[in-house]
Specification:
InterPro entries: Glutathione-S-Trfase_C_sf (IPR036282), Glutathione_S-Trfase_N (IPR004045), GST_UstS-like_C (IPR054416), Thioredoxin-like_sf (IPR036249). Pfam families: GST_C_7 (PF22041), GST_N_2 (PF13409). The protein is an alpha+beta fold. Helix content is about 45%, strand content about 10%. It has one domain: Glutaredoxin (3-Layer(aba) Sandwich), CATH 3.40.30. It has a 4-stranded mixed beta sheet, with helices on both faces.
Length: about 280
Amino acid sequence: MSSPSITFYDIAQRPPVEKTCCSPNPWKTRLALNFKGLPYSTTWVPLPDIQKVRTSLQVRPCRKFADGTEFFTLPIIHDPATDSLIGDSFDIAVHLQKTYPNSGAGDLFPPQTLDYVFKNDYLLVPLSECRDSEYPEYAKFNLNVDAAFSAHVQLTVQGFPFDPATAETSKAEFVRRAGGMVARWEDFGLAGEARAKMMDSFRDMLGDLGKLFERDTSGPFLLGTRASYADMIVGAWLRNMCVTLPENEWEQVRNWHGGLFGRLYDALEVYAEVK
């Protein structure tokens, strides 16, 4: 008997949503679902409706802002095989591995050392906590990669593909999340010398991260020719950058450090189908 289809909740951007979906954490889930070869369908949720949908499903937020208010975001999956509702991308990957250990391309969490650390004092969006996990190397890596890319997210904000039907509401929400750092949407803009400086910082960050990928030169993944969830963590952020950066800057990113991250992006394409 075939497995019942999983419902995957992702954030709807500007139509066509299959081309503009760019939220990193949902992309981690999509890559993992496709890696596992599991039947699923995507339910697209407009950004202003996320809190309503998450509340209606009775899936509590797993993150909070610095002021203690809850951060309502996606992904969520409903897996009818276990009647599970899970609302954190890392927890979803763990669930998929434990529930379907031999499905698709195999193990999402093969043993490896992921000794990458990134420190930043302030981020606009709260990160998932590094909770106790049976995959502690991956949990720490997830937190540090999220921090590293989030520290450079201002490069992408002006290119965010908002749905015109909800754009103004969504922009106002981004300003609210900034906690007084900006007064209006346009203040997120980054140009000229300031943008060049952040691009330099982004390149340097990717250089440090890239050292892990250079340990095994047999393929584009951290384990050479074998993909793992750690590659998907990075790949999900690259999917975000591909959509939100100006095209010329995305081409720079693809080609930095000998094209390492361009090759990773391309190699994960096999798991990037939007269903």
